[in-house]
Design goal:
alpha+beta; 3-stranded mixed β-sheet
Length: 98
């Protein structure tokens, strides 16, 4: 699967970039191994609430879509949403200042 993006990773990346106010700070990593493939979604601190949603509804909806892929592909997927490290956010903000 080297050099190829899985459908699960592409789906999460598409949804997250369209919901985020800073799509350039959305990073999706798929960790293979174990009983389930872990999809790590890293977003800016400002977008964390937007991606999780009220009472976790947006995150639950993304997980429901991953469950559909689980049924189609026969692989289990888990979603973990994390905020970007402060150092990475500061570097991005410095790069955008004139």
């Amino acid at each position: 699967m080297r050099g190829q993006t899985s459908r699960a990773k592409a789906l999460v990346q598409f949804i997250a970039r369209n919901l985020a106010s800073r799509p350039e700070q959305v990073f999706v990593v798929e960790v293979l191994g174990g009983p389930a493939h872990l999809i790590e979604l890293e977003v800016a601190k400002d977008d964390l609430g937007r991606l999780i949603g009220r009472s976790g509804r947006v995150a639950d909806a993304i997980r429901a879509l991953l469950q559909i892929l689980t049924l189609q592909e026969g692989r289990m997927y888990e979603l973990e949403i994390v905020d970007a490290p402060p150092a990475a956010q500061a570097a991005q903000e410095d790069a955008h200042e004139p």
